[in-house]
Amino acid sequence: MTILKSKRISVIAENIKRYRNKMGISQDKLSKFAGITLQTITKIESGMTLDPRIKTVRRIANALLVSVDDLIK
């Protein structure tokens, strides 16, 4: 794993958590809004999932009412 890839993923995790907290919703609520498992949200936010699928990132972005770019920048 490259440092760049690790940095990009950690930014995604931080942004998901930031936007989720801004909306005032739990990981469980986000998982339901996005149609993905709570375990997936937890693993991404904690950094355990180092390479989330773009489909998953899109679902999370839609649930958070932001663009994919907002999550990866």
Characterise the protein shown here.
The protein is mostly helical and 73 residues long. It has a single domain (3-72), classed as Orthogonal Bundle (434 Repressor (Amino-terminal Domain)), CATH 1.10.260.40. The protein has helices at residues 3-23, 27-34, 38-46, 54-64, 68-72. 21% of the residues are buried.
Offer a concise description of the structure:
The chain is mostly helical.
- Structural category: mainly alpha
CATH superfamily: lambda repressor-like DNA-binding domains
**Tally of individual domains:** 1
CATH class: Mainly Alpha
Return Rg in Å: 11 Å
Annotation keywords:
73 residues, globular, 434 Repressor (Amino-terminal Domain), mainly alpha
Topology (elements, then pairings):
Elements: H1 3-23, H2 27-34, H3 38-46, H4 54-64, H5 68-72
